[in-house]
Design a protein that fits this description.
By secondary structure, the protein is α/β, with parallel strands linked by helices. The chain has 16 helices and 17 strands. It folds into two domains: about 130 residues, Urease, subunit C, domain 1 (Roll); about 290 residues, Alpha-Beta Barrel (TIM Barrel). Strands 1, 2, 3, 4, 5, 14, 15, 16 and 17 form a nine-stranded mixed beta sheet that branches. Strands 6-7-8-9-10-11-12-13 form an eight-stranded parallel beta sheet. It binds zinc ion. The site of zinc ion has 4 residues, from loops.
Length: about 425
């Protein structure tokens, strides 16, 4: 652990922009961020010890670097907290580019599913893949995330839908993230779909739910999963089934989060509030009652605007209503091969502003502090301030706005994780 006492400073930054605090930010506070022009940051033993003006930095630490201090030039650049991607499905095999084009040619999701496409095809490919192959895919997706500024992410199982295949996905996450700069928090999602072989009748489905509750979730919890998730949706798992799966997860020590009100107003948001979920995700069809329930119980709304665009839904989650109701909003990629194939949070941040009407400041909070809070790590990550881990992203631009204003390119030039420079001028160092 010789790195423990390392010092890394980022000097002469054009600017710094960060939300502040150790809790999720909601309402008008979601858009209140700290901006410093002419900034500097100091990270010692992996943690931020200074974030302020260059002048104040020089007053406290002097102009010249101390022996052993790493100095990163921030000239012309803006420092932001490391991005946190709070909803991904990265352990998968097989692509669905054909159905992407079929949708553009007029086929519906239902027609694609009836001809063997959709999630079922990803399940088949993922079940057939070796652990080594899945591990390599996880690693390459984490590499891309890092180059786009993500320093922590959540990742789900849910393409196995049987015990051994779900465990294989989880192990691919464990092996693929070993020694990787991106921290991965794992979610058990055997309740992503009803497996094809269990769709014959109600009894078969009930038997699969029993298997999820009694065998698969305990096995995934034992190997390091931290959250339990379910696709609570008309035609997938109804409210009672979702409640059962989430409760079973809770009794193995997993924290509930769920896919809620994505395609129909089923009441997933209310279920999230009732069960004490940390996050309810998607929420395109959330009702007024759902918004009120979430606001009362402090559930974070994790919104996935890239999915709305990718599926050409002509609809987004009502982000402005959620913020007005005092619900903290996070934004994530939903990275998966069927409904949102991107590792880039800056790309999704663009859709959060243009599509959902978030301000740039609200969007920054959504992909940093609030996303960290939805993973239970707001005390440690999600902002640039003393006591937080030294996760900092530099964009090669004079102000925060360029994160989304200059769209369709990767604005990230440098990434620091736990006080170590891991991406420099767009190139991976470690
Ligand atoms: Zn999802």
């Amino acid at each position: 652990m010789e790195k423990r006492h390392d010092v890394l400073s980022i000097r002469n930054l054009s600017s710094l922009a960060t939300p502040e605090g150790f809790e999720p930010r909601s309402g008008v506070a979601q858009g209140r961020i700290r901006r410093v022009s002419g900034a500097a940051i100091r990270i010692e033993a992996g943690h931020i010890t200074f974030a302020g003006t260059e002048e104040e930095f020089v007053r406290q630490f002097g102009e010249a670097p101390h022996p052993g201090e790493t100095v990163v030039s921030g000239l012309g650049k803006t420092a932001l907290p490391g991005f946190v991607d709070a909803h991904t499905h990265i352990p998968w095999s097989g692509f669905r580019e054909g159905e992407f084009n079929d949708r553009l040619k007029g086929q519906t999701y239902a027609e694609i599913a009836a001809s063997g496409g959709g999630i079922v095809s990803t399940v088949a490919a993922t079940r057939a893949a070796t652990l080594a192959h899945l591990t390599a895919s996880v690693k390459s997706r984490l590499d891309l995330m890092l180059l786009h500024g993500t320093t922590c992410c959540e990742a789900k199982t849910g393409y196995g839908l049987q015990k051994e295949a779900e465990l294989k996905q989880l192990r691919a996450l464990v092996h693929g993230s070993e020694g990787h700069p991106v921290t991965v928090e794992m979610t058990a999602l055997p309740g992503h779909e009803v497996p094809l072989e269990c769709r014959g009748d109600a009894q078969q489905k009930a038997a699969y739910i029993d298997e999820c509750c009694n065998e698969i979730l305990p096995a995934l919890a034992a190997e390091g999963a931290r959250f339990v998730d379910v696709f609570c949706e008309t035609g997938v798992f109804d409210l009672a089934e979702s409640r059962r799966i989430l409760s079973a997860g809770k009794s193995c020590g997993l924290v509930p989060r769920l896919h809620a009100d994505e395609l129909t107003p089923l009441g997933g948001a209310e279920l999230a509030a009732e069960i004490g979920a940390i996050s309810a995700d998607h929420l395109l069809f959330i009702t007024r009652a759902g918004i009120e329930a979430m606001a009362r119980s402090g559930v974070i709304a994790t919104l996935l605007p890239g999915t709305s665009v990718f599926l050409r839904m002509n609809r987004y989650a009502p982000a402005r209503d959620l913020i007005a109701a005092g619900i903290p909003v996070a934004v994530a990629t939903d990275c998966n091969p069927g409904s949102s194939y991107t590792e880039s949070l800056p790309a999704v941040a663009f859709f959060a502003t243009i599509g959902m009407g978030l301000t740039v400041e609200e969007t920054l909070t959504a992909i940093t502090l609030n996303a960290a809070a939805s993973l239970g790590m707001a005390d440690e990550r999600g902002s640039i301030e003393p006591h937080k881990a030294g996760d900092v992203v530099l964009i090669d631009a004079p102000s925060l706005e360029h994160l989304v204003y200059h769209y369709g390119v990767n604005p990230v030039s440098d990434v620091v994780v736990n006080g170590r420079l891991v991406v420099s001028s767009g190139r991976r160092l470690l």
